[in-house]
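A student in our group prepared the protein record below, which I am reviewing. Thanks in advance; the entry in question is below.
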Amino acid sequence: MRPFATAVLLASALALAACGGKKGPEAVTQQTAVTTIGVNSYLWRASLETLQFMPLSQVDSAGGVIVGEWYQNPNIPNERVKVTVAILDGALRADAVQVSAQREVMQDGRWVAAPVRAGTVQKLEEIILERARTLRQASLAR
């Protein structure tokens, strides 16, 4: 997973460098700010891994927010979902992760809001929490 995290940080740093055009100490300060994770790192990594199947429109490690783009499962072409994850605390706790989801279905050639299937949000939260615990256990074992 380390190469993925490195790639995310590198892409963020490159995007920031392309926008600012600053040189010297100011550029170093901006790059340092990009690599700071303001939330529980295990929950953050677990969230990114859990949502790796969908494109992401916003990834804010300092604020702990991950917003996915609309994802359309190739096996269900008339349905799409959008998922948002918020990490709310620095501790690895069940109430430190909050998942929300939107679902749309195709009706008469246009996307129409539909209810998210029961248990979907809770299942995603459980997957993230379990993965975060596994990541923490692995890091303690080293």
Summary: Residues 1-36 form one domain. Residues 42 and 132 are 5 Å apart (CA to CA).
